[in-house]
Amino acid sequence: MSSDLQTTFSKNNVDGDLVRLDNKTALEATLYLQAYIREREENKENPEENNDIKNLNDFQVSLLAEKQKLEDKCKELEKIISNLNKRVSKYQSALGDTKNFRLDDNDKNNSVQLTNDILRLQDALEFYVTNLRPNIEINYKNVINLLNKYRSKTRITNKPSDIPLIKAVLQRHVLETILSYVSIYINHEDSGDSYSLEARIANKAEELILLAEELGKMREGNDNLTSTIPIKIRQQIYSALGNRGFSNNIINEQKICEHDFVKRFKTELNKEMEVYRKISDTTRKEEIEEKAANIILDVIRIFYFRIRTQEPIGQIRWFYYEDKIDPRLMIGKWEDDNLDDFEVDICKFPLIGIELNDDLKRKIYTHAIIHHREINSSKSEANSQHVNPQQSNPEIDLQLSQSNVSQQQPNSDVNSQQI
Hints:
419 residues; alpha+beta; 2 domains; 13 helices; 12 strands
């Protein structure tokens, strides 16, 4: 090893064994260092290669910039496509798909939203009837007469255990009382004033639906549109009535006043309830009676208008005293393990849905709400297997029409209605 190399290693305090390398190893190390130095010098002297590397780097930067521009453009196009899809969906919803009768998710008559509104009506009826205590006087004689009207043979006294049954029969009575007001309302159909506007619209719609059906049957053609027109007319007209039917009147485009139907019958409904229960607390009485108007509106809109927006048309079904308990169609506070020991006493809210008579196609919106009773063990076998004769009767329409309206009476022989 040369003295210079040895001195260099020594100055860097390299281990003493390295200083004593043999000549061959030292030579190889020297050659390697020389080759490395030469390669470095050659790279400095080769500007073309360095320039190529620089160009490649610049090209890479350019490609990355172009890639970013394309990504930004894609995002912009995606926004445009999304907005166009929303506009198309909006127009399709407005015009309606020829063969699609399903209501949009945002439509208040969509089955989910309709179901929620029915459940809210049930809560409102519960509040309106009240819990019948405290400061509430029950007229037991009139309540017993009402139970007899619904064929219930259960005997009540002033025991607290009778309160649930009394509440049930009063809720049933409120519902059917409101429905009975419609038969009075349609007698003014031909008056031509704004009072009868809803009835006149409904009747004209039914006439147009029948004419459209005749067109499809009596005129030759192979289009898909004609056969759907009756359903579309029904859905659109009753949707509008469900939104605005019996709302406040607008007089001379300025004055707002309560619809005469609601104004009249909310008072009559409150008087009717006083026959069965009197609220002694004035403040609470006012609070409860103020709910009558909205309850009337909700019952008429749901039972007469909104259910007719469904395809097929919605149905209701009442159950009667001594009907068998069926958990598929009813809800109540019975023990599921002993269903054979119970039967219907009062059905306080009907079953609502579509295709109710078809076990396969049936779609239930809300189950019937039942106050049950325990079956008397002394009944004969014939009585224990009693089937109410109403079960076999056909369904009837509830429409705002003098020719078609059917008032559901408590003693009626029909327990299933198409509304």
